Amino acid sequence: xxxxxxxxxxxxxxxxxxxxxxxxxxxxxxxxxxxxxxxxxxxxxxxxxxxxxxxxxxxxxxxxxxxxxxxxxxxxxxxxxxxxxxxxxxxxxxxxxxxxxxxxxxxxx
Length: 109
Hints:
This protein is an all-alpha fold. The chain has helices spanning 2-77, 80-87, 89-92.
C-alpha cells in the first residue's frame, strides 16, 4: 500500500504542478487581455485625434485657398497694364479724338 500511496502522491504532485502552471498561464493571459484593451483604447483615441487633425488641416487648406483666390482677384483688379490703359491718351477720347476741357475744338486740351 505504501508503494501505491507513493505513486498516487507523485501523480498528485504532478497534477498540482500542472494546475499551478495553468493558473500562472491564465493570470498571464488575463494581463495580456488587459494590456490589449488598453492598447485598443489608445489606438481609438489616436485615431480620433488624427481625424480631428485632418479636419483642422482641411479647414486651414480651405482658408488658404480662399486667401489665394482673393489675392488673385486683387491682382487682376490692380494690374499695372490697366492703369496704363486708362492713362493712354489715344483711348481717352475714342477713335483718335481729343478730350476737350471746353467745347472748343480749336483749343484742345
